[in-house]
């Protein structure tokens, strides 16, 4: 999936190590933006995240009269899951939007609360966390890692896929399931009798094609835009978990921006995130339609009994992972979800 020549990422990386890319780049020529923000992400441009990043670019460039430029690097062109956060911390890129499942590995395991299976009934329940005090508190933890959290947004609910129908807990037994680097998701797969295999997103399709893993989970827009339908014969509409993102920047970079530039950038970003939340559902619906039309993957809807049995099978995960997430976070989470 890395379509830029290695030399490009190498140059950026070397520049970062040399400290020259840590601050906004300023150039003399009028046609060249005074500041260029580099926004790196791992998914396709036609996904909610890809579209939000492109929207952000347009808004920033229009409103700044092109004085501020945005370069978007989709599809892990520059950095994949394993190195994008480190690249941000080093200043090699300025904005990333990893899934919430990918913050545990940088010392923020509380973000994995979003991965608890069957936690949210709908997106309104997600909003009670992301727009409430708990969401603010989560973002406030990011400076511990030299980062600043600028907001949350959705992809949507995840579905399960493999080369056989996955309807009952027994269907998962023995399958190697690709997961993101989240202990909660790994525990969810183990509770179903599967073997979790952590892999970067950009390697997932190939791993499915070559049989390194048997199946995976993701919202349909990610599944479709990576052409996973060519290598997975079955998808079950389980809606068993949520996939969302946090946009993060390098704290040093963010603080060095001029206050009015920071305001412009932040405003454009908040609008792009609102836009992403508005289109996320539709993007997943379109992807599901396209998937049905392609006809290569059987789509299975679950009966309520099947869904209940899956839910029961993964129920122990909440208790097992409560100490990783933290008991205070778990208490606040339950309280926030109880409020109407
Ligand atoms: C994944 O790794 O499965 C997803 O988090 C990719 C993404 O960023 O949507």
In short:
With 340 residues, the protein is of the alpha/beta class. It is built from 13 helices and eleven strands.
Intertermini distance: 43 Å
State the strand order across the main sheet: 2-1-3-10-4
Average pLDDT taken over every residue: 91
Q: For the CA atoms, what is the radius of gyration? A: 20 Å
Q: Report the strand count.
A: 11
Main sheet characteristics = 5 strands, mixed
The SS-based structural class is: alpha/beta
**Which residues form runs of ≥5 with pLDDT under 50?**
1-30
Number of helices in the DSSP assignment: 13
Oligomer: single chain
- Described by the principal axes of the CA atoms, the overall outline is globular
Order of helices and strands: HEHEHEHHEEEHEHEHEEHHEHHH
Helix content: 40-55%
Instruction: Bin the strand percentage.
Output: 15-25%
Distinct ligands: (2S)-2-hydroxybutanedioic acid
Which characteristics define this entry?
globular, 340 residues, five-stranded mixed beta sheet, alpha/beta, single chain, binds (2S)-2-hydroxybutanedioic acid
Structure notes:
This protein is an alpha/beta fold. It has 13 helices and 11 strands. Helix 6 links the parallel strand 6 and strand 7. Helix 2 (48-63) packs antiparallel against helix 10 (259-294). The protein is globular and about 60 Å long. It binds (2S)-2-hydroxybutanedioic acid.
What's the SSE blueprint?
Layout: H1 6-17, E1 35-40, H2 48-63, E2 68-73, H3 81-90, E3 95-96, H4 123-130, H5 133-140, E4 147-157, E5 159-162, E6 176-179, H6 183-191, E7 195-198, H7 204-210, E8 216-218, H8 220-225, E9 234-237, E10 242-250, H9 251-256, H10 259-294, E11 298-301, H11 304-314, H12 316-325, H13 327-338
Helix pairs in contact: 2-10, 6-12
The chain binds (2S)-2-hydroxybutanedioic acid (LMR).
(2S)-2-hydroxybutanedioic acid is lined by residues 42-43, 49, 99, 155, 180, 201, 218, 222.
């Amino acid at each position: 999936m890395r379509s830029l020549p290695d030399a490009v990422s190498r140059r950026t990386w070397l520049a970062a190590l040399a400290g020259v890319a840590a601050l906004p780049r300023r150039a003399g020529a009028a046609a060249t933006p005074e500041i260029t923000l580099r926004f790196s992400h791992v998914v396709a441009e036609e996904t909610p995240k890809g579209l939000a990043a492109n929207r952000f670019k347009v808004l920033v460039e229009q409103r700044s009269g092109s004085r501020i430029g945005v370069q978007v690097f989709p599809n892990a062109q520059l950095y994949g899951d394993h190195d994008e956060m480190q690249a941000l911390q080093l200043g090699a890129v300025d904005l990333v939007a990893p899934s919430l499942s990918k913050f545990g590995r940088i010392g923020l395991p509380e973000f994995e609360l979003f991965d608890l299976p069957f936690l949210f009934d709908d997106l309104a329940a997600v909003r009670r966390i992301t727009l409430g005090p708990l969401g603010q508190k989560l973002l406030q933890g990011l400076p511990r890692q030299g980062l600043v959290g600028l907001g949350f947004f959705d992809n949507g609910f995840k579905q399960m896929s493999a080369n056989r129908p996955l309807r009952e807990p027994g269907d998962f037994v023995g399958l190697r399931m690709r997961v993101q680097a989240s202990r909660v998701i790994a525990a969810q797969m183990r509770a179903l009798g599967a073997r979790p295999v952590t892999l970067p997103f950009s390697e997932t399709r190939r791993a499915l094609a070559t049989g390194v893993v048997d199946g995976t989970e993701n919202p349909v827009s990610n599944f479709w835009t990576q052409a996973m339908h060519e290598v997975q014969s079955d998808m079950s509409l389980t809606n068993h978990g949520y996939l969302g993102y946090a946009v993060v920047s390098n704290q040093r970079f963010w603080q060095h921006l001029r206050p009015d530039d920071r305001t412009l950038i932040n405003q454009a970003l908040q609008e792009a995130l609102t836009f992403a939340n508005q289109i996320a559902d539709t993007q997943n619906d379109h992807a599901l339609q396209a998937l049905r039309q392609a006809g290569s993957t059987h789509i299975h809807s679950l009966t309520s009994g099947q869904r209940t049995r899956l839910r029961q099978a993964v129920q122990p995960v909440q208790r097992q992972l409560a100490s990783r997430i933290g008991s205070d976070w778990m208490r606040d989470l339950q309280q926030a979800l109880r409020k109407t």
